[in-house]
Design brief:
This protein has about 110 residues and is an alpha+beta fold. It has a single domain, classed as Nuclear Transport Factor 2, Chain: A (Roll). About 35% of the residues lie in helices and about 40% in strands. Strands 1-2-3-4-5-6 form a six-stranded antiparallel sheet, with helices on one face. The radius of gyration is 19 Å and the shape is elongated. The N and C termini lie far apart (about 55 Å).
Length: about 110
Amino acid sequence: MRKLIFLAVIAVCLSIAYAQSHNDHREGGYQQVEYNEETHGEAYQAALHYLSSKEIETSNITPKIAAVYQKIVSGVMYKFHIMFNDQGWIVEVWSQPWLNNLQVVSFKRIHKN
């Protein structure tokens, strides 16, 4: 019985170590993904619309996606890194497609270092 418990503890420790070593591309629970119009298009448009409503977006500047992150949380949380020339923004959009729900939950400016 003790050997079985010992082996279970070792297995858990190894799985945690494996997960940590393979999640270096994650940011706060988010996994970086490639932008896909079919998957991310509506959420990205919601992010752009939100920035426009805050009068952040300049209509004569074409936005560029610098990075896309996502995580699963009773829906999908997307984090878009959007650049307008040298001005960057991070916009988080929560999506529940089965409820037709898209909601911007946060946005912040990317400060240059």
